[in-house]
Amino acid sequence: MNLDVVKLTQDLIAYPSVSLSSNVDVTRFVIGILDRLRFEVEELPYIDVNGVAKLSIVAKLGKGKGGLSLLSHNDVVPAFAEQGWTSDPFKGRLYQGKLYGRGSCDMKGPLAATLCAATRFKVADLKAPLHIVVTSDEEIAARGAWEVSRKSNLFSEASTGYGLICEPTRLRVVHAHKGALYLEIRSKGKAAHTSTLKGINANIAMIPFLQEMRTIYDLVLRSRKYRNAEFSPAHSEWSIGINDYNIATNVTPVQSVCTISYRPMPGTEVDELIERTRQSAKKHGLRFAVKFDGKPVYTPKDAPLVRTALQLSGTRASSTVPYGTDGLAFASRMKNLVVLGPGDIAQAHTVDEWVEIEQLHRAVDLYSRFIDHVCVQGRA
Ligand SMILES: [Zn+2]
Q1: For residue 280, how far is its CA from the centre of ligand 1 (angstroms)?
Q2: What's the CA-to-centroid distance between 46 and ligand 1, angstroms?
Q3: What separation in Å is there between the alpha carbon of 17 and the centre of ligand 1?
Q4: How close is the Cα of 51 to the center of ligand 1, in Å?
Q5: CA atoms of 188 and 200, how far apart (whole Å)
Q6: Given a cut of 80, is residue 322 above it in pLDDT?
Q7: What's the rounded mean pLDDT across residues 270-286?
Q8: What is the distance in A from the centroid of ligand 1 to the CA of 218?
Q9: pLDDT of the residue at 267
Q10: How far is ligand 1, taken at its centre, from the CA of residue 45, in Å?
Q11: Where are the beta strands (DSSP E) in the chain?
């Protein structure tokens, strides 16, 4: 089967799989290709919070466990002509060595490169299995990746092997990114006209709790314990949000909501902070919930995967990035992960998003070398 990476990226862009709409059609299109390449495909469908059907897949070529996984998402951020796009964002346009269109860089181009690389191999050649994973909702809390990480049998088998998160890094090796933690704390009051003194103001119980959160806020910015110099910045903020959604000032606020977001790094004791917050909420009669607990991606710089990735990509040193990926969810199962993909993250989410065509071709070659190394030669 012959696939052209540019044409295939254009085909993928033509499906407007913005995160709020369904990604089922574009995923079915990908399944069609994987079927022809004789991959076994496991489907992980779900209905999202808005009632929209979503589909993630894990596909496998070859036998056994471990091997190599090429990980992509096929949802994209919104694009509207009124934002100032030069042409239709969902028609891939070629101009002076670049392919323009929503998702060209983040990350239908990289996904197309993984599929094109896969066409170069036959199942009989493989000593270790090759997996292609495509998720939904990466741009919204990585929901599809969580479905894969928690429920997929094939991913569970693949998780002892190597994973490449094919997000744009200009084909440089990224061995780590921060995690993402999101907590929500709620106080409940009773509504009444403020003139009556009959209400219960939900904000009052929140005040001593917020003071304790302020202590953690200072702690994580100053303490060495919450510092990891491999990242820039080396600390993360205990970012506190407050809201009572009260519109009429003559009505007692009936709810008060505190949100906390934090970007955990390897080696920083985030569980202690979660427990401390839970205890503080309890003490002040507030409801506490962990809404999202995304792990940092961290593969030690001297791990075999990182060394192999550097060797195959011809780069000297790996680095860390400040943004998150689906790795937030995959890292809870898969220990050997790097981010490595064509295109520049600076182009992601922009008007007139583009990817260099040369990067796409180089990615096909690099992923092919990776498949050959891990799956055909069976090397570490
Ligand atoms: Zn992305």
Answers
A1: 36
A2: 20
A3: 13
A4: 23
A5: 8
A6: no
A7: 97
A8: 32
A9: 82
A10: 20
A11: 40-47, 53-61, 68-73, 93-95, 98-100, 130-135, 162-165, 174-177, 180-188, 239-243, 255-262, 287-294, 297-298, 319-321, 336-339, 354-356
**Angstrom distances, CA of residue 356 to CA of 4, 168, 333, 344:** 15, 11, 33, 9
Q: How far apart are CA 87 and CA 294, in angstroms?
A: 36
Tokens read off for 33? 């290709």
The pLDDT score that the predictor gives to residue 91 is: 97
Residue among 12, 23, 21 at smallest CA distance from 136 = 23
213 alpha carbon to ligand 1 midpoint, in Å?
Answer: 32
Ligand 1 centre distance from Cα of residue 284 (Å): 39
pLDDT higher than threshold 80 for residue 117: yes
- Residue 10 Cα to ligand 1 middle (Å): 17
**What are the structure tokens assigned to 72, written together?**
């992509």
* Distance of CA 106 from the midpoint of ligand 1 (Å): 5
Q: Which two tokens stand for residue 159?
A: 């998780």
CA of 312 from ligand 1 middle (Å) equals 23
pLDDT of residue 174: 97
Instruction: Say yes or no: do domains 5-177+296-376 and 180-294 share a fold.
Output: no
CATH classification of 5-177+296-376 is 3.90.226.10, yes or no? Answer: no
Is the peptide bond between 107 and the residue preceding it cis, with omega within 30 degrees of 0?
Answer: yes
Domain ranges in the chain are 5-177+296-376, 180-294
Average pLDDT, the chain: 96
Q: How far is the CA of 325 from the centre of ligand 1 (A)?
A: 7
Residue 61 CA, ligand 1 centroid: distance in Å: 24
Of 186, 182, 183, 180, nearest in space to 243 by CA: 186
What class is the 180-294 domain? alpha beta
CA of 349 to the centre of ligand 1 (A): 9
Give residues with Cβ within 8 angstroms of 350, minimum separation 6: none
Among candidate residues 92, 103, 115, the one with its CA nearest the CA of residue 2:
115
Q: Report the separation in Å between the CA atom of 77 and the middle of ligand 1, taken as the mean of its atom positions.
A: 9
pTM comes to: 0.89
Q: Cα 77–80–83 angle (5° rounding)?
A: 105
